[in-house]
Specification:
Number of helices: 25
Mean pLDDT: 81
Distance between the termini: 55 Å
Helix content: 55-70%
Number of domains: 2
Largest sheet: 5 strands, mixed
Low-confidence stretches: 1-21
Radius of gyration: 33 Å
Strand content: 5-15%
Shape: elongated
């Protein structure tokens, strides 16, 4: 077995025991790494697998270092077979043709590696199983160092540089190039969404001193609110929330509805324009008629012509099991969100009973902040669990191809991550402060702790704080995790390699064999896998969800996303080229199932923003008061603001004597020395029996009507925009039509010539 290895020791010329008729390739497609196995069992398995590769025409070169490195090079016939079966030609430019062939060779070799099977002791083994058995440690294609300078140019100055995307396509394949093309496009259109958000906040900043609601809250020194907890919590004047009320006006003002509708339109137009941009890109790449299924079958035939094609299959039993397990996982994530709710309740009670005035006065705000931080920690922890669960469920389904596996995995992991990220936010947006009861009859957790209320200045502020903390922490720490940690790992491996191999003999060997130096450098880089690019997509989809779904509560989300993506484009390119091993090039003509994910997020964004404005925001109650109970409803426009008296009208009265411990509070007095007999709380209830007032039902009906109207208008705008903007530009359609006509004419001409003969 050893005599068949094309062994190149640390010198440029082959040794005497190697057949000199075997030409040594200039570049190697893949490098396989393994240990010096002491076990004959693993040695035999390794040699048996390498022998299977030789039978397929592979040239193998072995280099010895601390590890064994086996360079493999596929026969040139694989390119000819692929082009013939796919009926494809090569690029017109010689340099592009070279890069295209190199990327294609790596892709074909990777497929052959993963699908080559060898028999050992009456058992069938593939390469992945050999890695799991530690027969091989890893396998990777090699970077081309001369290309490093090209990709170092990727920065925020070159967001729309088509040549860089073209270079990425030739080097990393169409799938990675489409990711960068999509990320560039998404980042550019984010600026369009960020500008209205900034304008909305600036308008709120310039007008909050003129806000009638803020003025009334700041002047409400004699309006005492009910205690925020049951024990040792004081009555407090509404004017204490003056600063928070002004801050809330920054993003909850007259322009919020317009901004929400604009974002619904933006999400639709953005997707439609991306479809047009994508059609232009793949038309330039001659991929419009590329068939993924045909490509998979072609790869299988090249790898093993005698192998049976994997057929489509479906098992209702496996699907039912996957559905049940998936539902249980979602219930677990919802349970974690409810646990965070209980945590916030307990923290609010403990802080409100604190001896420190600082903690007592800010109990609600600190509970919201601590809950947001805990939510982020749960996101980080459960993200790892979600990934393992999604992989396990995909294995249960047994998908036919890697593309089917990726699509199945995408749906599962995105759904789990979406629930993981947004379950707590959904509670804050739509349930917080609405299911907690009223003074004297609060809903309690375990019969002890009462559910928390919205922030005194409004429920929207709670959602704003949650969004700001989670989005800021996620984007900041993601950059550290994605770039800084791989950089540290790479530097540590370099230092370890230098300390172990710091000898004159080793330096001389590197000088004699350039392959060894190149292979060692690639080996020191961070490992990549099938889901490396998937992780980048998933991160951007979660960001896109934050940017659109609750944007009415956090209008600065597009701006934060835009700034993050300017850094992301640069870091992703540097990471792929200088910190990670070369990604296996993959062919694609679109971003795959991620497009359906984006469309689903767009629909959820319309629903969520409509709910935020109608339920979470005070926009609807203000409009009901303005046109039914305010001074403007009586046609009194003599310089009086239409919202005058709104704050008093939106607060219900609760009498202290109805509290169980009212005897302990009988001597309670306000700052003027007057005895406190009643307190106020945010609701629409009668003061005699605490039942809902007629105004409550008016507001409820207005909220429901607005929600239906908003969502129908927004969805109609989305449908009109989708119809108005064609997915494929007319120029591309005409060019494809001409190409199709030319091919048919050529076939017709060939048929006529053959008939004459």
């Amino acid at each position: 077995m050893q005599n068949n290895i094309v062994l190149m020791p640390m010198r440029d010329h082959p040794s005497d025991d190697i057949d000199p008729l075997i030409p040594m390739p200039d570049k190697w497609d893949f490098v396989l790494v393994c240990d010096y196995h002491k076990s004959f069992h693993k040695k035999d398995m390794k040699e048996a697998f390498l022998e299977e590769l030789r039978k397929k025409g592979f040239i193998i070169k072995t280099i010895k270092d601390k590890k064994l490195f086996h360079g493999i090079c596929a026969p040139s016939s694989v390119i000819r077979k692929y082009k013939c079966l796919m009926s494809e030609g090569l690029s017109a430019q010689p340099e592009e043709e070279h890069q295209e062939i190199t990327s294609l060779r790596i892709r074909i070799v990777n497929f052959i590696l993963l699908n080559t099977e060898m028999f050992y002791r009456n058992s069938k083994w593939n390469f992945q199983e050999l890695i799991e058995e530690n027969v091989f440690e890893t396998a990777f294609p090699l970077h081309e160092r001369e290309k490093l300078d090209t990709f170092q140019k990727i920065s925020w100055r070159s967001l729309r540089n088509k040549q860089l995307v073209k270079d990425l396509r030739m080097y990393f394949g169409e799938k990675a190039a489409l990711y960068f093309a999509w990320l560039q496009w998404y980042t550019c259109v984010l600026l369009v969404a960020a500008v209205p958000g900034i304008i909305l906040v600036i308008y709120g900043f310039l007008s909050f001193n003129r806000s009638q609601v803020s003025q009334e809250i700041c002047a409400a020194n004699s309006t005492f609110m009910c205690p925020l907890c049951d024990q040792k919590c004081p009555f407090w004047p509404l004017s204490e929330t003056c600063t928070y009320a002004k801050f809330t006006h920054l993003f909850d003002n007259e322009g919020t509805v317009v901004f929400a509708i604009f974002m619904a339109l933006w999400a639709t137009v953005y997707l439609e324009l991306w479809k047009r941009h994508r059609a232009n890109v793949i038309s330039e790449w001659n991929l419009y008629w590329w068939d993924e299924e045909k490509d998979d079958v072609t790869m299988e035939l090249i790898s093993n012509p005698d192998r049976e094609i994997r057929m489509y299959q479906h098992s209702y039993v496996r699907t039912t099991i996957v559905l049940i397990l998936f539902s249980l996982m979602i219930c677990l994530l919802i349970g974690i969100a409810l646990a965070i709710v209980v945590f916030r309740v307990v923290v609010t009670v403990l802080l409100a009973q604190s001896r420190s005035d600082f903690f007592r006065e800010r109990a609600t705000t600190l509970a919201v902040v601590s809950g947001a931080v805990l939510h982020y920690l749960s996101i980080v922890t459960m993200s790892k669990v979600n990934r393992r669960v999604a992989v396990y469920l995909c294995d249960l389904e047994k998908p036919r191809t890697s593309s089917e596996c990726e699509n199945s995995f995408t749906v599962k992991i995105f759904t789990l991550q979406f629930v993981n990220h947004f379950s707590s936010l959904i509670y804050v947006a739509f349930f917080l402060g609405r299911i907690n009861g009223r003074p004297g009859n609060y809903v309690r957790v375990a019969g002890k702790w009462r559910l928390e209320e919205c922030h005194p200045s409004g429920c929207l502020l709670d959602l704003f704080i949650q969004m700001a903390i989670i989005m800021t922490l996620k984007q900041t720490l993601n950059h550290l995790e994605e770039y800084l940690l791989p950089w540290i790992k790479y530097q540590c491996r370099k230092l370890c390699a230098k300390s172990k191999n710091h000898s004159k003999i080793h330096t001389a060997e590197l000088a004699q064999d350039k392959c060894k130096e190149d292979w060692l450098w690639n080996y020191q880089l961070n490992e990549v896998n099938l889901f490396s690019l998937f992780n980048e997509y998933l991160e951007m989809m979660i960001q896109y969800s934050f940017t659109t779904i609750f944007v009415a509560a956090f209008p600065l989300a597009p701006l934060l996303a835009f700034i993050n993506n300017l850094i992301e484009i640069r870091y992703d390119a540097i990471k792929m080229m200088t910190l990670q091993r070369r990604m296996v090039p993959r062919k694609a003509k679109d971003i795959g199932i991620w497009l359906q994910v984006l469309e689903a997020i767009g629909i959820l964004a319309v629903i969520a923003n409509g709910l935020v404005i109608s339920i979470t925001s005070d926009f609807i109650p203000m409009q009901v008061y303005k046109y039914t109970h305010g001074p403007c409803a009586q046609k009194n426009y003599s310089g009086i603001d239409c919202l005058t008296g709104y704050v008093n009208r939106s607060l219900s009265v609760f009498y202290v004597q109805d509290l169980k411990n009212h005897n302990e509070l009988s001597d309670l007095k306000d700052s003027m020395g007057n005895k406190i007999t009643h307190c106020r709380y945010r609701d629409y209830r009668n003061s005699d029996d605490y039942s809902y007032t007629d105004e409550f039902w008016h507001v409820f009906a207005a909220r429901l009507a607005f929600l239906i109207l908003f969502e129908h208008v927004a969805l109609c705008i989305k449908l009109i925009a989708a119809w108005f903007v064609p997915d494929v530009p007319r120029r591309v359609k005409n060019q494809l039509l001409k190409d199709k006509c030319e091919k048919l004419k050529k076939q017709l001409c060939d048929m006529d010539n053959s008939t004459e003969v």
